[in-house]
Amino acid sequence: MGDPRHYILKVGTEDSLAQNFARNIRPFRREVAAYQLLRSCNHLASPRCYLSSATPDGSSGIFLLEEILNGQNYDQLRGLTWPQLTSTAQAVARVHARFWNSPSLRKAKGLPLHQYMHARQVGQHLPRFFRWATLPASTRSIFNKLPRQVEAALARLRKRPITLVHGDLRSDNIFFEKRSVRLIDWGLALAGNALFDLARVTGGSSQKPLSLLQHIKLLDLWHRELVRRGVRGYPIHHAWQDYRDAALLTLTIPVTNAPTLATLSKRGQKLAQTITKRFLFMAREMGSS
Residue 194: phi, psi to the nearest 5? Predict the structure, then answer.
């Protein structure tokens, strides 16, 4: 009584399909770890977390979170405009800079290392994806090369600096306030390469396909913010190579997610088709595929 704050209570799902998914990726355990780290940012990049707890297997739990009252987020089908993408790039760069090669990452319980959604399992998901997607032979060949290319990209990224990565950076998980951008749903958080976040949002949530020049401009904006926040020893040409590798990893998202997404609803079907086109366009534009 009399508390002026507004809260969101987040709990585990009772949907059996979602429960099976959660047992594999342990989203509550990962989100608990992420919010514990984000406390040091004074919650400028995320809602305040007042209480968090996860079950032993990390698949369920409870969060008491600050409700974001004065922000706006946008459906992924609608996508983000160029100004919104630039704001997001700067906001996530501030998070990346704060945890750049931080020892706290390896101490955080439940935060996996270099686990970019289901990128490693892309090969086993390809047959189902090909049954669902109607693709010309030239496009099928791009996806057929993914398992080998992903392994090479992961090997390169393991040699780069690590930071706190949101892991599921799409328009639905971004709130735009008047003077700030805040990120929600850290259930796929990881310790890994920062450029996965940038590629995830530009490839999957851009309202209009970005040109190669626009990708370069956005990366430069992200990198400038990183340097401004004190990160050293990470030149722009390393960032560009990592961005191209990250774009390759995001191309696995439609392979592993789209067929299931398409079965959930008409919106899910449309979203599955949309993200497949978006991620494929980005990979081609950047020469990643």
Answer: -60, -30
pLDDT confidence of residue 244: 97
> Is 142 a member of any domain?
yes
| CATH code (residue 104) | 3.90.1200.10
Is residue 53 included in any domain, yes or no? no
Indicate whether 47 belongs to any domain.
Answer: no
Q: Evaluate if residue 195 carries a pLDDT over 80.
A: yes
Cβ neighbours for 205, distance < 8 A, ≥ 6 positions apart: 76, 79, 80, 85, 169, 170, 171, 278
* Number of alpha carbons in the 13 Å side-chain half-sphere of residue 280: 18
Which pLDDT value is given to residue 94? 96
SS3 15: coil
Task: Please say whether the dihedral angle defined by the alpha carbons of residues 99, 111, 122 and 280, taken in this order, is positive or negative.
Answer: negative
Q: What is the pLDDT of residue 14?
A: 76
Phi–psi pair at 56, nearest 5 degrees? -55, -35
69: tokens are 């009252």
pLDDT in tens, 223-239: 999 999 999 999 999 99
Q: Compute how many other C-beta atoms are within 10 angstroms of the C-beta atom of residue 93.
A: 24
78: domain range? 72-285
Computed over every residue of the chain, the mean pLDDT equals 93
Residue 243 above 80 pLDDT?
yes
What's the number of domains the chain is made of?
Answer: 1
Higher model confidence: residue 69 or residue 274? 274
Token pair for 249: 């990893």
In a domain, 138, yes or no: yes
- Residue by residue, DSSP assigns 65-131 as EE---S-B---TTT-B-HHHHHHHHHHHHHHHHHTTT-HHHHHSTT--BS--TTGGGHHHHHHHHHH
Residues 248-266: what's their mean pLDDT?
Answer: 95
- Region of residue 236 (left: phi > 0; alpha: psi -120 to 50; beta: else): alpha
How far is C-alpha 93 from the geometric centre of its chain's CA atoms? Answer: 13
